[in-house]
Design a protein that fits this description.
With about 575 residues, this protein is mainly alpha-helical. The protein has a domain of about 100 residues: Tetratricopeptide repeat domain (Serine Threonine Protein Phosphatase 5, Tetratricopeptide repeat, Alpha Horseshoe). The chain is built from 34 helices and no strands. Helix 9 packs antiparallel against helix 10 and helix 24 runs parallel beside helix 26. The termini are far apart.
Length: about 575
């Protein structure tokens, strides 16, 4: 191994592996003036070591740019693959794609069988928009892989992540595929790449060739099915997947893949059917059952979802996830006690924290505020790094329970440790608003906006507050419209926009936006506002229908009650 390959701080100080023979031939050179060092470093061997030393010293100083330049310059004196690899890595760390490509070219040529070197060369040629480089190194990448299928798939992945260079990617892959017309792996890679860039005809033609050359290759058939889904030929995709052979587990996996394709295409019912077929084929396939439960839950098929999650929990597969989502099913059915029982079964995993919060909220909804707060305090001890979120939840429960002063105490204590926390500031602003302290509420929201001028929640809350507590409706509407830019379909923001338009007397546009909000949410305040607009437009029957429907689900909502009393008394 060359000395520079292990050069480090010790060698720079004179007692490591750094090769000093070229510059230490005599005692005189040891005391040579600084002006002579460059002269001494011009000998090729010394120049190589000198540039590596400069690179390492630059790294010690945190100067990755300087290190990258020095290491790439070192490649002028050596084409060693290990040196080129290190130069490539340092240049990438410095975010110098141009220098990294210069180094990767050396690395790839010095190590033609090293797949990492070939991948780096292809990727960096692509990033640096060098079609000749891509075309030169792509065949070497394929050749360096364990198999042509692995090589072509790796190439397709690399060429899939630059949408502005789709033509270069497709041209390169098309030429490779044309050079190997009977190579199913090449046709498959072209099909995948073309599908990624939405060149559907090219994708279909290539996938058909791959299937013809390798009729038993399931991935080629699944690619063709994905293309059929993109073409809107859903039945053809279903038939193609159904015809695939294999073990029960393999066939179930194919149907899971089909289900995901169909869901991505927006066909929820056929996607659900595909997952059901997967479970029917292999009832022990936990991934299929878990996927079916999630899909069914998302579509409101609570019976199917409950069955899947219960089966998973009993089997011990995804037990914590299954318990959590079974709790969600129970909650959707308004079986709060059962939901709490299921949430308590979540003993580990990504959903444990969320399950604990849901227990607190459901405990509160059962009328036990003290129990809910105890649950949150216990969680704060178990999750000290997430105490901010828990304080926000606790304060929210207190506000909802009509105890905004106690909520303020919770928020104030939490904000001492996290004075710029957005969630806490937002929550405290709502508590201030409940107490009629509009100036303080506005100050908290403006504090949020001083850190994030486009924060949609703060913009909407500030606009809505100004609508209800001032007459500066024009400024309120500006805030709300800016918030709406983040999510034009958000029911809460559409409600705010409709309400400020109502206040400004723009009843037609107010009705339009409130009806949009009403379609997307059953929030009683939206119903109260839409009913108010319809009442002012003279359609009292329509207003009463909207209000009565909301009252049936939310009989104690104060805004709804006050709106009805104000307009009908």
């Amino acid at each position: 191994m060359r000395a520079w390959a292990v050069v480090g701080l010790a060698s720079v100080l004179g007692f490591g592996a750094f090769d000093t023979s070229a510059v230490a031939a005599t005692d005189d050179t040891r005391t040579a003036p600084v002006s002579d060092i460059d002269q001494l470093a011009r000998a090729p061997e010394a120049a190589l070591d000198y540039q590596v030393m400069v690179g390492e010293l630059s790294l010690l100083d945190g100067d990755t740019q300087g290190a990258a330049k020095a290491y790439v310059k070192a490649l002028s004196y050596s084409q060693d693959s290990a040196l080129a690899q290190r130069a490539t890595q340092i240049a990438l760390a410095a975010n110098r794609q141009d220098l990294a490509y210069r180094a990767a070219r050396v690395w790839a040529r010095a190590a033609p069988k090293d797949r990492r070197a070939q991948q780096a060369a292809v990727r960096l040629a692509f990033v640096n928009k060098d079609p000749q480089g891509v075309e030169a190194f792509a065949p070497q990448l394929v050749a360096s892989a364990d198999s042509p299928r692995d090589g072509y798939q790796a190439l397709a992945r690399i060429l899939s992540d630059q949408p502005d260079q789709a033509n270069m990617a497709l041209d390169t892959m098309s030429r490779l595929a044309a050079a190997h017309p009977k190579q199913a792996a090449a046709q498959y890679a072209l099909g995948r790449l073309a599908l990624n860039y939405n060149h559907i005809d090219t994708a279909a033609s290539a996938a058909d060739k791959a299937v013809a050359d390798a009729p038993d290759w399931s991935e080629a058939s699944l690619l063709r099915a994905a293309i059929a889904v993109r073409q809107g030929k859903l039945e053809a995709a279903v038939r193609r997947v159904a015809a695939l052979k294999g073990s029960d587990r393999q066939r179930a996996e194919y149907h899971v893949a089909l289900g995901r394709m169909l869901l991505q295409a927006g066909n929820d019912s056929k996607g659900l059917t595909a997952f059901k077929q997967a479970v029917a084929i292999d009832g022990d396939f936990a991934e299929a059952r878990y996927g079916l439960g999630l899909v069914a839950l998302s579509q409101g098929d609570l019976d199917t979802a409950a069955t899947q999650f219960e089966q998973l929990y009993k089997s011990g597969a995804h037990s914590d996830d299954a318990a959590f989502y079974r709790g969600v099913v129970a909650e959707r059915r308004q079986h709060d006690a059962k939901a709490i029982d299921w949430y308590r079964k979540v003993s580990d995993g990504d959903h444990q924290f969320a399950a604990g919060v849901r227990i607190a909220q459901l405990t509160y909804e059962q009328g036990n505020l003290d129990g809910a707060r105890d649950q949150l305090h216990q969680m704060a001890d178990a999750y000290p790094d997430r105490s901010t979120k828990l304080h926000a939840v606790e304060g929210g429960l207190l506000v909802d329970a009509g105890q905004p002063k106690k909520a303020l105490a919770v928020y104030d204590a939490a904000l001492k440790n996290a004075p710029d926390d957005t969630d806490l500031l937002y929550a405290r602003s709502l508590a201030y608003a409940k107490l009629g302290r509009v100036d303080a509420a506005e100050a908290d929201l403006k504090h949020i906006l001083s850190q994030d001028a486009d924060n949609p929640e703060a913009l909407n809350a500030l606009g809505y507050m100004l609508t209800n507590h001032s007459t500066d409706y024009a400024r309120a509407e500006r805030y709300i419209r800016k918030s709406l830019q983040a999510d034009p379909g958000d029911p809460a923001v559409l409600d705010s926009l409709g309400w400020v338009e109502y206040k400004r007397g723009h009843l037609a546009s107010a009705r339009k936006h409130l009806e949009q909000a009403y379609k997307g949410s059953s929030d009683p305040e939206i119903a109260a506002h839409l009913g108010a607009v319809r009442w002012q437009q003279g359609d009292h029957d329509a207003a009463r229908r909207i209000w009565h429907k909301a009252q049936a689900k939310h009989p104690d909502n104060k805004v709804l009650k006050q709106t009805i009393e104000r307009l009908t008394s």
